[in-house]
Structure prediction request, 288 residues.
Amino acid sequence: MSPLQNEKRDIRSAEPDGTVQGLLALPLVRIVPLSAGGRTTGYGKTGDYILVAAAQGNMTVSAHNRYALLDPGQVFLLESPGEYTVQAVSEGLCMLVLLQGELVTRLLADRLAEGSLLFPSAAAMVRETVMALAVLEDELGQAPGSAASAQAYSLLLRLRSQPRQGGTNLGSPLVEGALAIIQEEFPFLEGVEELAQRLEVSAAHLSRVFSKKTGVSPGKYITYIRVEYAKLLLRDPDTTVTYVAEASGFANANYFSKVFRKETGMSPSEFLESMPQQTEERTIQTGI
Prediction:
């Protein structure tokens, strides 16, 4: 039976032999479904290359001094990123691939711009690699290191054949600016009017461009972000609904409860009560 492509999953490969490992290794891939506004974070140490594929939906990728807004099908490569965050704008599916070894540098160094590179239509290639490793793991218990390295080499050759494009997505600076403000300052934003004023455009123009680019309105995205953050705060059994409402940017606890129920199908109190029975929620620490 073929592996499911939309289930959260880690696939860890065995280590290849020492010679191959120094040249090219693919130790880990991750499949991460994300709700709108949900995020996954990770850390890439020096020498790591992280491929972030927007297999479904729009998402942002941010690391130190590096940022991209990915359309569905796009892939963003980060070199030695340190801490980074992937956040969904619309409901989506993220695939993360960790690459190591000098062959990555040899094949892609001439294309990297300030430690990052955007591939405009490579998510299908990443998906094929991830699914191939998933099949090997299902059949063998763990993907052999040599097979993972071979998959990595094939992927790199295909990525190298992609058209050149700059390190960030320059197609919609207005939307990128709006997303950056929302993601960093959502608890304090009064709404779309304030956001538009800060971006020096009309609210109608911002809503039109934002919705066309991402599939959701800026107001709806602000709500998504606030609800996802509220879910994080509600994990603390000692928290209060009033505190969570204020910290997430809602006007009051009653309005927060109304919005939370609309978005999740549960009241904040019901969500709190359900936590012992829940496994991981939609915000996932990748560690990749």
